[in-house]
Amino acid sequence: MRPEMEIAMTDAATQPVGDVDAHRRTLVAAAYRMLGTVADAEDAVQEAFLRWLRLSDVERAAVSNPGGWLMRVTGRICLDVLGSARVRHETYVGEWLPEPVPVGTSTGDPADAVVGAEGVSTALLLVLETLTPAERVAFVLHEAFAVPFAEIAEVLGRSADACRQLAASARRHVGRRAGAGVPRGRHDELIAAFAAASASGSLDALVRVLAPDVVLVSDGGGIVSAARRPVRGADHVARFLLGLAAKQPTAAYEPAVTGDGLGFAIRMDGVLAAVVTFATDGERITDVWMMRNPEKLRAWA
Questions:
Q1: 21: helix, coil or strand?
Q2: Helix (H, G, I), strand (E, B) or coil at 111
Q3: Looking only at Cα atoms, what is the longest distance across the chain?
Q4: Quick count: other Cβ atoms within 10 Å of Cβ 178?
Q5: Crossing angle for the helix pair 66-90 and 24-35, nearest 10 degrees?
Q6: Taking Cα atoms as reference points, which of 146, 110, 141 lies closest to residue 24?
Q7: Please, which pLDDT band fits residue 44 given cuts at 50, 70 and 90?
Q8: Do 52 and 16 contact (CB within 8 A), yes or no?
Q9: What pTM was computed for the model?
Q10: Virtual CA dihedral for 298, 85, 225, 270, nearest 10 degrees?
């Protein structure tokens, strides 16, 4: 939970705007953890940079730590966005999922900091969705980026002690909901078994690798077709997946490394159609997350 993304400290009085831009990768990574999508994260960071540029030369010269200033402003912007996020999610067409990102690629894009974050899983982001906006901001800033509580207090408009309590509450909640986790190697073994069972076309074989209470969630964002409600239970999920495979016989399933571990990028005639990620309990697959919304697949292009 503490990625090596420390913000470089320089003297703001002599720092050109171009040098301030060097902080963008870290800011996008933080905003992604707070908001759950790369697009929202980039918008938040862009707004923070606009606020920096609106400062007078005297005001900028008074900022001893531009990276810290930008992180605090980004946190405030994310707090505002999170305040309206639940309303937006309620009007979202179908099920909403956080955006999955590939791991271990380098595109030169500001989102690279997000792309390389192996600790940012769909499971974690879904747990963070259950926190209050203040808890989420406090947790991400302190746990992932080691921002002092005195600075988080400036973001949230609360005392440092109150922010410490928010982060502690969030930490307990995340620990209870996310559990101890499954070793990555074991996770990937189970996903490989799932792939083999799916390729066999056998309903019984596929059901055996799924937990009895497995849940499949598909996010199409109202742009492409997707299951409007979660599919629950091993038999229903297996039939759903085999039905999709039958309807898409030319689909190519490419192994992909994600924050959740091994997953799959599904391509139709060379065009990315979906990214599928999973959670397991170490014995069977407990969750299947299918991202089909093209607006949340930009990092995979």
A1: helix
A2: coil
A3: 70
A4: 15
A5: 30
A6: 110
A7: very high
A8: no
A9: 0.85
A10: 10
